[in-house]
């Protein structure tokens, strides 16, 4: 075999290999394209729904450090969504509507609680400026948080239909921002209120008598003795303190989900946040009622800080005695007479 013949055969074999290679690539191309084809919707949807049916993890992959973001649908999401749209929503409605119904009925039956001995026109200091600031900081921020929080839970079904998409979207966006930032003011007010009032809210035997007599709220002319805070106010204090602490902690975890742990932990915090907020809303609405239209002279305590002496004697008789004894001991003489109103 001479060189010319060898060269011809080599070229022929090389040509055959090139042709086979091209044909092979062409034959396999559809299979490779099918493997990564994003338009294969039927196969993709079947696999997704199969996983969803068994409450399994539906995940992909991401290029960011947060690996939890790779989960499109996570285990427990369906049950969490059901609880959020049923239990939390129902409790939120009951917390507000239930309180309004109960208080309206109470007002129609009992009426406004008046000062039986009539207003004396003599004033006594009940709350200092620091105490009132702590109260209004916490109260004002709670109202903002309650309204914006209710919009997050109920807005889409109860506000959107009559407000319209554009207005609802604007209110919801700004409401979410307000909710995130006003929460810090609520925490500050909660800490301040706890610091200035904890010493006056320790339960004692006097509270049992107050509870036994219904706090004097159910029957005219009944005035059980009480210190600076009666048993009902102590219930509100501890409900606000413990409930507010729970809201603060769970809210913090939702603001910084990287600290919350797993997705299941975050879902748990969200449910606790919603349930506690609903219960606390009921309690706070009752507190607002009795401190405003429900009782004569009550609003002055947090308005000017001074209350009528007869009001104080009927609702906080032991506290009045403590104040007058303290003033007498400080002055080294008889108790000072509270000053008349201007």
TrEMBL record:
In this chain the Cytochrome b561 bacterial/Ni-hydrogenase domain maps to 126-304
Which Pfam families does this one have? Answer: Ni_hydr_CYTB
What species was this sequence derived from? Dinoroseobacter shibae (strain DSM 16493 / NCIMB 14021 / DFL 12)
GO MF entry, a single one: formate dehydrogenase (NAD+) activity
Record SUPFAM superfamilies: Transmembrane di-heme cytochromes
Keyword list, A-Z: Cell membrane, Electron transport, Heme, Iron, Membrane, Metal-binding, Oxidoreductase, Transmembrane, Transmembrane helix, Transport
Q: What is its EC number?
A: 1.2.1.2
Q: Which residues cross the membrane?
A: 90-109, 133-154, 181-198, 235-256, 268-290
Protein name (database record): Formate dehydrogenase, gamma subunit
Organism superkingdom:
Bacteria
How the protein sits in the membrane? Multi-pass membrane protein
